[in-house]
């Protein structure tokens, strides 16, 4: 595959060149917006995220929270795959690094997060059952 990329990128007698997918400035803007906004603010920040943590603690919106977490895992896998393709095609550092960083952070936080939120929902369900037992007694 790399030979094909080098062959496609070569002009007659020149060194292989690869056209970057985007500029360094766009990499910074995109990486900051997605990495800081989606992962940092909504999902990861402050003990389980600004959205998912309070919902899971209260035992509400289980489908939304678990679906969101699984979607973030899939997105993180997509970022890692994009970084791998960028590396294999010879893209510069500013192209593959944001993908790899967001994918690695996403997988290292979201995969354990799925299990953490599952346990939070189990605890919330247990509290509801205990409260119902106390009311009926």
Provide structural commentary.
Helix content is 81%, strand content 0%. It has 137 residues and is mostly helical. α2 runs parallel beside α5, α3 runs parallel beside α5 and α4 packs antiparallel against α5. About 8% of the residues have low confidence.
The assigned structural class equals mainly alpha
Strand content: under 5%
How far do the termini sit from each other? 70 Å
| Shape, per Cα inertia axes | elongated
Mean pLDDT across all amino acids: 80
Following the backbone from N to C, one meets helices and strands in this order, namely HHHHH
Largest sheet features = none
Q: Uncertain regions: pLDDT < 50 for 5+ in a row?
A: 4-14
Helical residue percent band: over 70%
DSSP strand count: 0
List the total number of helices. 5
- Gyration radius, to the nearest Å? 22 Å
Summary of the model, kept short:
The protein is an all-alpha fold and 137 residues long. The protein is 81% helix and 0% strand.
Question: Any chance you could write out the topology, listing elements then pairs?
Answer:
Layout: H1 2-9, H2 24-48, H3 52-58, H4 62-88, H5 93-136
Helix pairs in contact: 2-5, 3-5, 4-5
